[in-house]
Design brief:
Shape: globular
Radius of gyration: 19 Å
Number of helices: 6
Structural class: alpha+beta
Largest sheet: 10 strands, mixed
Length: about 280
Amino acid sequence: MITGRVLGKKYVRNNISADASGFVPDMSADIYYEVVRLIDGKMLFLPDHLDRLKLSISGSGISYPGKQQIIENLGLLVRENSFSEGNIRISLQNSNGGEAMLQCYFIPYVYPDPVKYNQGVKLAIYPHQRPNPGVKKWDDRFRNSVSKFILEKKVYEAALIDSQNQITEGSRSNIFFIDRQACLVTAPAKLILPGITRKYVLEIAHGNDIPVIEKNISLDVLDSLPSAFISGTSPKVLPVNKLDNYRFDVKHPLLNLLMSEFELLIKENLTDLNLKGEI
């Protein structure tokens, strides 16, 4: 398990950097969080992540510190460490003093290698339904259980199914299928945590006149769907070659288009923390 570990020499809490050696985040507390990817020293899709974090804590009683304070904390974190790439967790939780506790720190990550993008990855079905899908809140019991499942099954990701045997999302990603009419098929937004990468995949689809169907995806229709992929902060757009006993085409032309278009889009959505101004 790596969910409680941090990377780097320093972490930042409420505008103050501190020694990260021995620091273990309390992941059992009520924590609302985002994981942002650092690429060449710049933050990918940062405005989207901050908007979603604000939405997640609405109604929780936790005060939102504001975009500028979070950006300043992120800038301090990057300056205090030697990383130009990696994953950063931004977390918010209540503190005893009433002020929201904002923490930013580097966390372990595993990015797919070129072989996985070329040959695809394996998924396994895991029964679980998020109690509040639209809110990105840490669930320690679920995280530990699903991580153990992924290791035991020797798969890249777990595909979550609900009580009606419908695939909703991955444990840390969103799932897409491509049907025989070259339509993009994915679960309705109300049933899942709408990922930031998912949002941009849908924008690419709409920009290329690719039909998108948001509907429930039952296990018994998987053999009629020729291709599949997952999307997320770490995997980006990653082909799936197998889900349990169902196999998928990792070279589907539509999938190749989405992968290449997403790589171009990344370059347009990097935030330089050293530049002043609104994001």
